[in-house]
Amino acid sequence: MYRLKEDQESFTIVEGPFAGRTFARGKLYVEIPPQEAKKFKEVKETTPEADTERPSKLSGKKGAVIDAPENSEVTP
Asked: Considering the entire predicted model, what is its pTM?
């Protein structure tokens, strides 16, 4: 797990596989952009799930929770 260092400002990645993702102080991240690794510190603490940013499975975009019947089709 990684956390943005206290002296770093929040930032948004504009290119590459992390494009569109914003990294902010106070949140934990499972993965970070390698080119920005110096802005983060590795932490081993456990926090509530709401405080953790996990990577989305939808092409680098933040996922959304939707209610849909079990047998319905989902189109991208």
From this structure: 0.57
